[in-house]
From TrEMBL, chain A:
Pfam families: Sigma70_r2, Sigma70_r4_2
The keyword Transferase appears for this protein: no
Family: Belongs to the sigma-70 factor family. ECF subfamily.
Gene3D superfamilies: 1.10.1740.10, Winged helix-like DNA-binding domain superfamily/Winged helix DNA-binding domain
Biological classification of the source: Bacteria, Pseudomonadati, Pseudomonadota, Gammaproteobacteria, Pseudomonadales
Domain RNA polymerase sigma factor 70 region 4 type, chain residue ranges per copy: 114-166
NCBIfam families per UniProt: PRK12528.1 (NF009180), sigma70-ECF (TIGR02937)
Protein name listed in UniProt: Sigma-70 family RNA polymerase sigma factor
Species for this entry: Pseudomonas canavaninivorans
Keyword flag Cell division: no
Keywords: Sigma factor, Transcription, Transcription regulation
Domain spans labelled RNA polymerase sigma-70 region: 19-82
Domain of life per record: Bacteria
UniProtKB/TrEMBL annotation, chain B:
Name of protein: FecR family protein
InterPro entries, per the entry: FecR, FecR_N, Ferrdict_sens_TM
Domain named FecR N-terminal: residues: 15-56
Gene3D superfamilies: 2.60.120.1440
Signal peptide annotation: none
């Protein structure tokens, strides 16, 4: 049993090693063209291989197509993270001085926001906004209905949809 | 479909959990709705698991500063990546979910002979005339036979006032907890079962504690002690706070806020947390336990504490004011 396991693992490591030596340079160049930043490109290429290592994939038929696909997913997360960070920094900058949290807390809040952001991202805009108005701003459903220009029933439907979505994803 | 993960939750139960979150989030929940919800939540281990996940979600949403969270999360979305994210979310949803260990003890309260629900106290008189008061969230089984009077404390806290045994041959009066056994020697005493530890306070007479493989300790009137499977605590004098619960009060004398919150939590269903930044704040006073909202308001008036709640007081967070 463990023999089979280690054989599979050997095969996986060989596959990833081949992939790395054959295509890392190509992936890096591609990411660099896309991002225009050597450090970010190196980071993302690195993350791509880390994810492939974790995947235990043993056979790769089309190495570059496969790499593009995995790197694409990582890039999506990365763009989302960057967008969140930008919005967060803007929000920080507009806070009155006494309300600005300590550097340590700033980072913790960002991490928490990142997690929620990823969870809510695929929700329709109105559903997401209703959910945020309720859970972050503490608005009543009636007020949310007024603000979004929809009925109370609709707000409740949005809220349930968002809660169900988050319950499915939260971990 | 991939093989069904045994930890995956029934979608219809998750759907119901989402429905409850939606209803409770609105804030104004009637007592009957709240009861209905508690009944739903306790109707099976799967329901409790689903609700544990709901609590995890709430904990992630809790305590975010709106001035930062709202503009960050409610930013205009980047076009063109929605479809890709949809695929990603679908993949994540199929990933196996891990669960924290959940309490097996929960079902035990239903098989107990007597039970006091959260936030309530019960007085009862046993067939031998012994008087027992059950504190909040307490479950006991009573086994009387011709050789002994045995009271099994499954969870919670009790005050026992033993009576002279009416049977021709005097039977010992015993209280058993997970950690050991106590024999009343004509007496009034209180016992509290905590996870892995039992606390005993003797008001009158004496109580003999026996712990398997460890030995015995006799605790005299006016003393309190504790024990676990590993041994006995050193006895200390009983103070007046130990029976405050029988009057529906929680007495705090220079008590850490974190400990106070744990104590108060025993008397209410739902989640009560305090920010680590104020965990060491010292609290003193007598507080009503059956009206936790009032107690929290009293705290907020006296100490630099800000009380925030959601889900109609189900989820309460104490933060620095």
């Amino acid at each position: 049993m463990s023999d089979t396991g280690s054989a599979v693992n050997d095969c996986h490591l060989r596959t990833v090693a081949d992939l790395y030596s054959g295509h890392h340079g190509w992936l890096y160049a591609r990411l660099y063209r896309k991002l225009g930043n050597a450090l970010d490109a190196a980071d993302l290429a690195h993350d791509t291989f880390i994810r492939i290592l974790a995947s235990k994939v043993a056979v790769i038929e089309e190495p570059r197509a496969y790499l593009s696909c995995v790197a694409g997913g990582i890039l999506v997360n990365w763009f989302q993270r960057k967008a969140l960070e930008r919005a967060y920094l803007q929000a920080l900058a507009s806070l009155p001085e006494p309300e600005v949290p300590s550097p340590e807390r700033r980072l913790l809040v960002l991490e928490a926001l990142h997690e929620i952001d990823a969870m809510l991202d695929t929700l329709p805009t109105h559903v997401k906004r209703a959910f945020l108005l309720s859970q972050i701003n503490g608005l009543k459903y009636d007020d949310i209905a007024t603000q979004l220009g929809v009925s109370l029933i609709t707000v409740k439907r949005y809220m349930k949809q968002a809660f169900l979505h988050c319950l499915t994803l939260v971990d | 479909m991939p093989s069904h993960d045994r930890h995956a939750l029934d979608p219809s139960i998750l759907d119901e959990a989402a429905d409850w979150l939606m209803r409770l989030s609105e804030g104004s929940v009637s007592d009957s709705e709240r009861q209905e919800w508690e009944h739903w939540r306790n109707s099976s281990p799967t329901h409790r698991q689903a609700w544990a996940r709901a609590e995890l979600l709430l904990s992630k949403l809790q305590g975010l500063p709106p001035a930062l969270a709202m503009p960050s999360l409610d930013r205009p979305s980047h076009p063109g990546r929605r479809a890709a994210m949809g695929k990603l979310a679908a993949l994540l949803a199929l990933a196996p979910l891990t669960w924290g260990s959940w309490k097996l003890n929960d079902w035990q309260q239903w098989t107990a002979d007597y039970r006091a629900p959260v936030g309530e106290r019960r007085d009862l008189t046993l067939t031998d005339g012994t008087h027992v008061t059950l504190n909040t969230d307490t479950a006991i089984d009573v086994y009387f036979d011709d050789r002994q009077r045995l009271l099994l404390l499954r969870r919670g806290e009790i005050l026992v006032q033993t009576a002279a045994d009416p049977s021709p041959v005097a039977r010992p009066f015993l209280v058993q907890t997970n950690e050991g056994r106590m024999q009343a020697l004509g007496t009034r005493f209180s016992v509290r079962e905590e996870t892995g530890h039992t606390r005993l306070a003797v008001l009158e007479g004496a109580v003999r504690i026996q712990v398997k493989g460890i030995g015995e300790q006799v605790v005299q009137a006016g003393q309190r002690s504790g024990f676990s499977a590993l041994g006995f605590d050193a006895p200390t004098p009983v103070d007046k706070s130990v029976l405050a619960w029988t009057q529906g009060m929680l007495m705090a004398d220079n008590m850490r806020l974190a400990d106070f919150v744990n104590e108060l939590s025993r008397y209410r269903s739902g989640v009560l947390r305090c920010d680590p930044a104020i965990a060491n704040l010292r609290i003193s006073g007598a507080f009503p336990v059956n009206d936790s909202r009032r107690t929290l308001n009293m705290l907020a008036q006296t100490y630099p504490i800000n009380v925030s709640s959601r889900l109609g007081d189900y989820w309460v967070m104490l933060a620095p004011a």
